C-alpha cells in the first residue's frame, strides 16, 4: 500500500460501504487447491493509484490475470481474505495484521514485503528536535498503533523516554516525565496537523495523509523514524494471504513484480517520495508477525 494509507489504518473507522472494482471469484479455493486459469483477486484501499495499473499490466505479461478489488473501509480486506473472497490483500503493515489475527483468531500470513513509510515529526518554528524548548507540548495520533509508533519516534529524537525502552504497544502512560523534555497530547490523527497549524503545540507527529493540512510536505519533517531500525519492523507493509494458500507460486511472482522499477517508481511518487522499499523475506515477516501476536496475547 502507499504511505498515504499506512498511517490511517488503525483508527476505528465506521463501517462504510465498500466499492468493488472487480467481482470475480478468487483464483484460489478455500480448500487449498489453486486454479491457475482463474484471476487472482487482490484487495487494496488505493486502487486508483497509478502503480496498480502498471502492476496489472506486468502481471498479464507474465501470464497472470489480476483483478484489483478496492475497499473504502480498512477493516474489510482482511475479513474478505479470511472468508475466501480474495486471494491476496496489500494495504497494511505487520502490526495491523497481528491485531486482526489476534482479535479474530485468524491465520492470515505475510507472503511478501513492500515498503516502510517513515513517520515524521513536524514543526513550523523549529528545524531540529533539539531546538524544541523544554516543557513544550507535542501532538501525536491517539489510535493504538500510531500512538505507539509516534512515541517511539519522539524517543528516537531524544525528546522523551519510555518505560522499558518502549515498544509497538506503548501509550502516553509509558512516558517517564522526569526523563523527558516535552509533554505529549494524543488527539485524532486528523487533528495533529490542525493543532500544529493553530500554534497550540510546538510540534506534531503527523501521518502522511494529513501533512498537507498543515501547509507542509513530507520533506518538511524535522525528524523521521529510521526504517532500517528493528523498531520499524512492525510497520513493514506487506502482501497477505490465507495460511493454506501462502505457498502459491504465483504470489511470489506478484511480489517480485511489485519490486520492478516501474511499479516502485509509481508507488514512490504516490507516497510523496517517502517510501523505503524492502524485500524482507516471507520467513522473516512471519517471524516478526509471530512475535507481535505473542505480545498482543500476553497483554490480553
From TrEMBL:
Q: Which PROSITE patterns match?
A: PROKAR_LIPOPROTEIN
The residues forming a coiled coil are none
> Per its UniProt entry, which superkingdom is the organism in?
Bacteria
Kindly give the SUPFAM superfamilies that the UniProt entry links to this protein: Periplasmic binding protein-like II
InterPro entries with a match to the protein in the record: Lipoprotein_NlpA
> What is the residue range of the signal peptide feature?
1-24
What does the sequence similarity comment in the record state about its family? Answer: Belongs to the NlpA lipoprotein family.
Q: Which PANTHER family match?
A: D-METHIONINE-BINDING LIPOPROTEIN METQ (PTHR30429), LIPOPROTEIN (PTHR30429:SF3)
Which protein, by its recorded name, is this? Methionine ABC transporter substrate-binding protein
Organism of derivation: Serinibacter arcticus
Amino acid at each position: 500500500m502507499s504511505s498515504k494509507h499506512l498511517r490511517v489504518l488503525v483508527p476505528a473507522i465506521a463501517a462504510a460501504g465498500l466499492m468493488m472494482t472487480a467481482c470475480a471469484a478468487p483464483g484460489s479455493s478455500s480448500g487449498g487447491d489453486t486454479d491457475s486459469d482463474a484471476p487472482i483477486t487482490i484487495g487494496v484501499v488505493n486502487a486508483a493509484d497509478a502503480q496498480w495499473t502498471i502492476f496489472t499490466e506486468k502481471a498479464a505479461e507474465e501470464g497472470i490475470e489480476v483483478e484489483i478489488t478496492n475497499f473504502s473501509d480498512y477493516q474489510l480486506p482482511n475479513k474478505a481474505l479470511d472468508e475466501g473472497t480474495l486471494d491476496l490483500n496489500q494495504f497494511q503493515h505487520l502490526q495491523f495484521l497481528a491485531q486482526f489475527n489476534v482479535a479474530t483468531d485468524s491465520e492470515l500470513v505475510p507472503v511478501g514485503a513492500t515498503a516502510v513509510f517513515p513517520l515524521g515529526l513536524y514543526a513550523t518554528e523549529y528545524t531540529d528536535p533539539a531546538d524544541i524548548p523544554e516543557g513544550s507540548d507535542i501532538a501525536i495520533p491517539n489510535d493504538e498503533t500510531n500512538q505507539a509508533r509516534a512515541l517511539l519516534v519522539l524517543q528516537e529524537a531524544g525528546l522523551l523516554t519510555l518505560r522499558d525502552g518502549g515498544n509497538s504497544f506503548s501509550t502516553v502512560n509509558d512516558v517517564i516525565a522526569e526523563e523527558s523534555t516535552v509533554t505529549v497530547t494524543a488527539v485524532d490523527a486528523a487533528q495533529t496537523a490542525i493543532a500544529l497549524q493553530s500554534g497550540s503545540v510546538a510540534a506534531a507527529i503527523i501521518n502522511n495523509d494529513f501533512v498537507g493540512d498543515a501547509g507542509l510536505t513530507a520533506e518538511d519533517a524535522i525528524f523521521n523514524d529510521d526504517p532500517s531500525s528493528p523498531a520499524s519492523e512492525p510497520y513493514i507493509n506487506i502482501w497477505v494471504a490465507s495460511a493454506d494458500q501462502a505457498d502459491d507460486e504465483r504470489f511470489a511472482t506478484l511480489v517480485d513484480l511489485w519490486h520492478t522499477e516501474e511499479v516502485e517508481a509509481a508507488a514512490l511518487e504516490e507516497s510523496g517520495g517517502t517510501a523505503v522499499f524492502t524485500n524482507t523475506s516471507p520467513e522473516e515477516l512471519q517471524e516478526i508477525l509471530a512475535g507481535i501476536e505473542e505480545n498482543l496475547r500476553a497483554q490480553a
